[in-house]
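task queued by scheduler; priority normal; single chain, no ligands, no partner chains; default sampling; output format set to structure tokens
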Amino acid sequence: MSTVVSTVRHQAATSASEKTLLVLEAALAEPRFTDVVDATGLAKATVHRIVATLLDRQFLAVADDGGYLPGPKILSLAGTALQRIDISAIARPFADALVEESGCTVHLGAVSGDEIVYLVRADSDRPYLMPSRVGLAVPLHSTGIGKNVLADFTDDQLDRFVARAGLPGRTPHTLTTPGALRAELESVRRLGYALDREENVPGIGCVAAPVRDHTGHVAYGISISTLLLEHTFDQIEAMAPMAVAAAQKLSTALGFPS
């Protein structure tokens, strides 16, 4: 008899936890109490009770317009969680899976000022290695990952970047004029991925997709790189769906809504 009672209590506790999480998620996304009720599908009395508890425990706060905001407690927890994020560890399984799928070298890069810094390099079983390494900083404008970052810039941000960093040529194929770069970034926005057509290192091409953090900001990118002796540019671009899918999965893992 005691086992049955314990099971029932456990199920009720799980149900209560799920309801609390539903209400918290809805309250942070919806502007009014009635919207929270509609979003959760729970009874008004249940939502009111849970919201009152979340307010009391400082997981929620009330805005001037009566809507809900993240409370001090949830902001503190979020800050702690963000400090402990190891993007390299999170990204590694996605990079390894992309190597398996593409048979090419995969890089994960992060924005650092006006450059991309490689955080992960995952190699295939090809009998050669790319001339890259973890920690290497490369320009935004001449790399596939960097172009995805620049495509997320506003016009003013892009103007400031060009004035500040310039567009130095890395190879004869690097885009070195603002007009050429802007046209390229329009294509990146339309396609959802970027190509490096031998623009950063002679003899190497890549396709890269944007990785977004929990705010939706393009803070990272993942790329498939190969020697042009192995693949043509058309073959490299044909791997774009692989890069995009991996980037979307990694973005979701970093908290960006899928």
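post-processing summary
- The first strand starts at residue 60 and ends at 62.
- The longest helix spans residues 2-29.
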